[in-house]
Amino acid sequence: MHLDARDAQATGPAARAAMRLSLIAGLLMFLGKSAAWWITGSAAILSDALESVVHVAAVGFAAFSMRLSAKPADERFHYGYERIAFFSAGFEGAMIVIAALAILWTAIQKWLTGLELERLGTGVLLVVAAAVLNGALGWHLIRTGRRTGSLILEANGRHVLTDCWTSVGVIAGLGLVLWTGWKPFDPICAILVALQILWSGGQLMIRSMRGLLDWADPKAEQALRRHLNELSWAEGAEWHGLRLRETGGRLLVEVHLLFPYEHTVGAAHAAATRIEEALEGALEIPVEVLTHLEAREDHDGVHREPHRE
Length: 309
Fold this sequence. Notes:
10 helices; Alpha-Beta Plaits; Alpha-lytic protease prodomain-like
């Protein structure tokens, strides 16, 4: 029940409602920023609007991924569909990187071909409104993602905050133009924003690749080792062969438990079950533990490699 309740949160009503809110807000932000660019002709605002296009596409894929990850395991996918979360995070990161490159290209092109800016005051007000809304939405998505254990929602929230920082950079650039009258501040700020979101997208892609390659989180491994030492000692057992992998919604753990030879299979199994249940509640994320029982006295002999001439 512990695992089912925690897993259900990642795709439950709160997570789905947050994803719908993100999609609606993304569409509204795109329309607002497009209007601001049409009014002003600003390269920075155009870069912000391009990032919103990418954001809407990424949210659409994230919503699909959340729905798919909720499907239970079946005869074709024995471990379920949760690892789609890593594909979703990687896709979102790649979209952010593409947006950053598009912003860089557009800003440089606008700078080289000449800058024409009009009605900046109205454009700045529209971008300020978008930045405030995106900041609040991004914070809500990350908070909901962490509370429900949804990597998909958390990655989407980080993308929304990236959109917010893009808008902040645009506001800074246009504010400097209004203050100094020097138009190159507009593309310069667009380029700086592009570099910042390029880094953010790269971080999401790295996290995705780690998950797909079964990277073992050192903090989670250290915590599991500490609990295993305490639990196995209390049960009169030893352990080895610890392995762990993330699915995007839970942590799968495998470990070998060594019991004294005189223990019956029933007694060893009961002790192993107690250890599994304790480990499943030891971390802040959902954990599923699979144990392999062995006899301590003849372990080395049973597992000794065959002699090779």
